[in-house]
Amino acid sequence: MDSYGEKRITQIFNYRERLLVLVLSCLSILQLSCSSRDDRFFTLLDETDDAAKLVQEANEDLKQIRRMYKENEGRIEQLKQAMKDNRIDEVKKIADDLVYIINDGMALGESALKKINRASEMNIDKTYKDYLQLKRESLQKQLEAFEYRRQAAVLLRDSFGTKDKFEIEKAKSDFRQKEENFRQEMEIARQLSAEANQLAKEAIQNQSIK
To answer: What pTM was estimated for this model as a whole?
Structure first.
């Protein structure tokens, strides 16, 4: 092969080689660019931090509820004793106070529930979502429980003033039934909360193993 032919072939191979390098370089840049965009995309979709902030706000509401519950739990025993002694005015006064206290507590509970619902609807880890679902169900049961107690307080406030012994005994019976419903719902709420806490504990342990 003459020198011109060899030179031409060399030029062709060099051109192809440079073209291949250029194509591969472009592909690498494109891949890195896509990867970077994907990372930003998934980062934007991961709303765990925002969900955690909402849960923290919900926990602040729940702390207030627990404080109110502890401060006023003794009133239930006072109410029961006043009912037992048929101290009508005292029963009505305590029951009226409890209605307002429970209303305030339930408003805080509804606020916390909305925040947990919003957090659970975000793009978060499945385990975290399952945890929030259990917490949501637990809080819902607590609200249902306190609705029974609120109804009991309203009943005594509005109905215990009668002089009819039958009506008084009926009010007492209805109160006892609603208090039993309250205890049952609260027990379910505690079980759900315990399941949620166990799930969180296992998730932390699994993460530490990894």
So the answer is: 0.73
